[in-house]
Sequence to fold (96 residues):
Amino acid sequence: MSASSLRTVHVRIEGRVQGVGFRAWVADEAHALGLSGWVRNRRDGTVEALFGGDVEAVAEMLRRCEKGPPAARVTGVEIVDEGLPVEPGFRVERTV
Fold:
């Protein structure tokens, strides 16, 4: 895979996204799409994530995050940064 076919995005997801299984759902979706990165809750009530991988897979993950799991009510997905380094694999991290 060439560098031009890879993308890494750091996102913040707002709405009713905590206490609804959002992090576990993100991890499952990211694994299914072959993405690397992480997801975590933030004390301000948002969820933060880093997704890295194939350009199309990252775009699909962003689309999926706009809806979220059934109990979630997403009001916004904001790309905070792009191009950050990402380690292989996907993990759920502690709240910050």
Q: What stands out?
A: Strands lie at 6-16, 36-41, 47-54, 73-82, 90-92. The helical segments are 22-33, 55-67. Residues 50 and 90 are 9 Å apart (CA to CA).
